[in-house]
Amino acid sequence: MEFKEKVKSLAQSISADILTWRRHIHANPELSYQEHNTMDFIAQVLSQQGIEFTKGVGETGVVALIKGANPESKIIALRSDHDALPILEANDVDYSSKNKGVMHACGHDVHTACLLGAATILNRTSDEWEGTVKCIFQPGEERLPGGATLMIKDGALTNPTPEHIIGQHVFPDLEVGHVGMRSGMYMASADELHLTILGKGGHAALPSGTCNPIVVASEVLLEFEKMMESRDEQDVKTVLAFGFIEANGATNVIPNSARLEGTFRSLCEEWRFKAHDLMKEIVASVCKRRGATADFEIRVGYPSVYNNPELTESVRASAIEYLGEDKVHDLPERMTAEDFSFYAQKIPGCFYRIGTASKNSDLGHHGLHTPLFDIDEGALEIGAGLMAWGAINSLRPKGT
């Protein structure tokens, strides 16, 4: 039997197990950095499959090693994440969340189940390929500082050090059986903006003795917009948006302060940090002119995701071989963020998308981070098999 067909056959043979793993994780979601039970479940499955692992990496992460022949000849890594979101699930299914207000609305249950499946396939074929595959089951992708930073700090990319890393993410914009990827810059950096304007409150009918922080905040926002419109980096996609403002005044009360929260995202690291300085200058200038002060914190978040071109072309070739050329698509840049970027800063990385929408129903067509997000579970077998095949192709069959 051709090796690829063997991988497909193994993926099919364990598809019921992958589905069971996914449904268990989906029904028992845990928020970022609280994934103790999920970590234990991952460890239990790995133990049942006879796979070597270490748990407690990055507090609630797991790292597994699968060694083929000549294990030191080449080392690569596969990565998944397993935290959930603070969302009340609206799906009426047997495996819906048992933890009210917590939901796997970003598919991390799928990522974990697929990597467990890929690890199982790799372990059962380990005498037929050379090298070592490090499987990184990561917590905390949804919240700063990003579980990837904790895993890296705790040695996930050392002893042994992988030559590259591959990650997979669900994608409701593609049907099951299809995948998408982009070489080079793919996803944006993401920074949090926390701004408090401190003015002087008072009676709204006597504004001359006040410094209205709402007016100051409004002027700051308008100056931010001007900065975005006049920047030299017109070819760099950037998002600057504020989605929260709180002042706690009244119709006849000017408050002492106004608090704003927003996000800044960019596909250029150089412009990213230049913009940070410009925003600080704007806040200081407007406050000085208006007689206010400010507390402006820019919480530096995830870097932009850069897919190594050579590795991405290799992953693309593996996907074409596994699924067919008509099933592999080029994707546009995205302004969403991913802490996979921290790994890709250390070693070459490729982060791609796997289709999860049903061709014959509405299943899987709801967006990420929504109460109705779900998948066509036919994606599980494909996701596990494709990850395993990509890893094997990154290494080499024994004797070749």
What structural class is derived from the secondary structure elements? alpha+beta
Task: Compute the number of helices.
Answer: 10
Question: What number is the mean pLDDT?
Answer: 96
Architecture of the largest domain in CATH?
3-Layer(aba) Sandwich
Which homologous superfamily in CATH is the superfamily of the largest domain? Zn peptidases
Helix content: 25-40%
Query: What's the multimeric state?
Result: single chain
The tally of structural domains comes to 2
Terminus-to-terminus distance: 16 Å
N-to-C series of helices and strands: HHHEEEHEEHEEEEEHEEEHEEHEHEHE
Q: Extract low-pLDDT stretches.
A: none
CATH class of the largest domain: Alpha Beta
What characteristic shape results from the CA principal axes?
elongated
What strand order characterises the main sheet? 1-2-5-3-6-17-7-16
Rounded to the nearest angstrom, the radius of gyration is 24 Å
Largest sheet geometry: 8 strands, mixed
What is the CATH topology assignment of the largest domain?
Aminopeptidase
Give the strand content: 25-35%
Number of strands: 18
